[in-house]
Amino acid sequence: MDVTSLPFLLAVASLVLGLLAAAIFVYVVVPRRRRAKAKAATPPTTPKAEPQSPSPEPEAPAPAARKEKVKQHSLFVIFAHPDTTTDERLAEWLRGKEATYDPVKKIYLISGKQPSNPVTIANAFPPGEMPDLLRGETHEPIRGVSLLVKPPLHKRRNQQMYVYVELAKELHETFSGDLLDVDRLPTTETTYTQIIG
After folding, report:
1. Beta partners for 75?
2. What whole-number distance in Å separates Cα of residue 63 and Cα of residue 77?
3. How far apart are CA 101 and CA 121, in angstroms?
4. DSSP readout, 21-74?
5. Is the pLDDT of residue 109 over 90?
6. Does the pLDDT value for residue 3 go beyond 80?
7. 196 with 165: CB under 8 angstroms?
8. Read out DSSP for 138-195?
9. Is the pLDDT of residue 197 over 50?
10. 126 cis-preceded (ω within 30 degrees of 0)
């Protein structure tokens, strides 16, 4: 064997091994990546639970738990019969909660357990601006309010979420209307559990 044939044989062997590595990559790695991308693009399916015992009344399906991070919780109290007396009762309720009026944003703030993260009370129709009820500002009767609060950064600091849920329930009972979640569906205990965390 002469000296020039050894480098030639090594070059051919390395070329064959390179082709073999490329073939393995194309037939093994590329399909795995495609399957992983397809799996990530399709929403996960939830397995159906088998009923353990027949119930006399069918239960309403529970809303799917929200997986995405919530920037702000929203609940809506829609008044059953809005009129001037409703506004007077709302003003009294706000005074009782020691709410403060922000004249720039035209909303009410209730400190609750965490003054740094107050519960916001805003008009539901049209969304946003509320009149200064505490000073007797004239306006159209308020037909409903929205309650807004930011979730805590840490779950152990969720005292304000309890205050938020209690305020919403109290407004609902006081004004005997509808209490709706962010999707405009009636609230349930599941809604409150998701908010409280």
Report:
1. 147
2. 19
3. 9
4. HHHHIIIIIHHHHHHHHHHHHSPPPPPPPPPSS--SSPPPPPPPPP-SPPS-EE
5. yes
6. no
7. yes
8. --SPP-EEEEEEPPPSSGGG-HHHHHHHHHHHHHHHHHTSEEE-TTS-B--HHHHHHH
9. yes
10. yes
* DSSP-derived 3-state class of residue 109: strand
What is the rounded CA–CA span in Å between residue 11 and residue 97?
Answer: 85
Q: What is the mean pLDDT of the chain?
A: 79
Element (H, E) at 12: helix 5-24
Tell me how far apart the alpha carbons of residues 194 and 83 are, in angstroms, rounded to a whole number.
Answer: 33
Two tokens, residue 183: 């999707």
Count of beta carbons in the 10 Å neighbourhood of residue 142: 21
Which is nearest to 99 in space by CA: 158, 157, 176, 170? 170
pLDDT at 43 over 60: no
Please determine, for residue 137, whether its predicted confidence score (pLDDT) is greater than 60.
Answer: yes
> Residue type for 84, please?
T
